[in-house]
Amino acid sequence: MSNAVRDNSSFDDNEPDNLPDSSDDGLGGGSDGVEGVGGDEGDGDGDDDDGDGNDGGEDDDDGTGDDDDDDDDDECLASVTIAGTGGGKRRFWRKPNGAIRIRAWRPNGRPWGKRVLVQADQTRESTPFDAVCWGGNFGFRQIRLYYVGKDNVLEEMTRPNGGRWRKGNLGKSKYKVGKNSSLLVIRTNGRTRVRFTNPRGEVRVAVSGKEGWSLQKPPKK
């Protein structure tokens, strides 16, 4: 099992990636949008943490009111943990069936719901994955998860502006990922960069931008 922990406390930009599926979707008010108000329970990510618009829930933010608990929730083949600026964290892990789940902890260390974020039939077998967060008082206003889909294409799940999780636009670029590639995502200068190896064994970097994603070669050392 592989595990990675990333501290995002140095990420201080509040901007989304300015992509059609990674920008403000009208969830800017109430418990779904503005950070730290409405139903938010103190993690500053603008979400009411339980999907029902109230502030007492412990579920998975899918709006169903249940926690999606399974007997094998703790089975994990690989995991990535991202840390915000106030002590909160988000953990993503891959289950044996290939599904990717997420769980969150508030700044006080108290956990709240977990859920399946990417279904098993949407991921490549043994997909690599990585995540990043930035913005807001607690560092979770923007959250992104990157993984490889069934067709070996680099994919993205986005949680923009403290809103709801949804699939991002990166997959539309059809960047193919090699069989033995890992993924590494960083956020610098207002851009998200995802490093991977293509099927020809060449290292490439997908870079977010206002007009969409672009593919670049890594800088020479």
UniProtKB/TrEMBL annotation:
<feature type="compositionally biased region" description="Gly residues">
    <location>
        <begin position="26"/>
        <end position="37"/>
    </location>
</feature>
<dbReference type="InterPro" id="IPR012475">
    <property type="entry name" value="Fungal_lectin"/>
</dbReference>
<feature type="compositionally biased region" description="Acidic residues">
    <location>
        <begin position="10"/>
        <end position="24"/>
    </location>
</feature>
<feature type="region of interest" description="Disordered">
    <location>
        <begin position="1"/>
        <end position="75"/>
    </location>
</feature>
<comment type="similarity">
    <text>Belongs to the fungal fucose-specific lectin family.</text>
</comment>
<dbReference type="Pfam" id="PF07938">
    <property type="entry name" value="Fungal_lectin"/>
</dbReference>
<feature type="compositionally biased region" description="Acidic residues">
    <location>
        <begin position="38"/>
        <end position="75"/>
    </location>
</feature>
<protein>
    <submittedName>
        <fullName>Uncharacterized protein</fullName>
    </submittedName>
</protein>
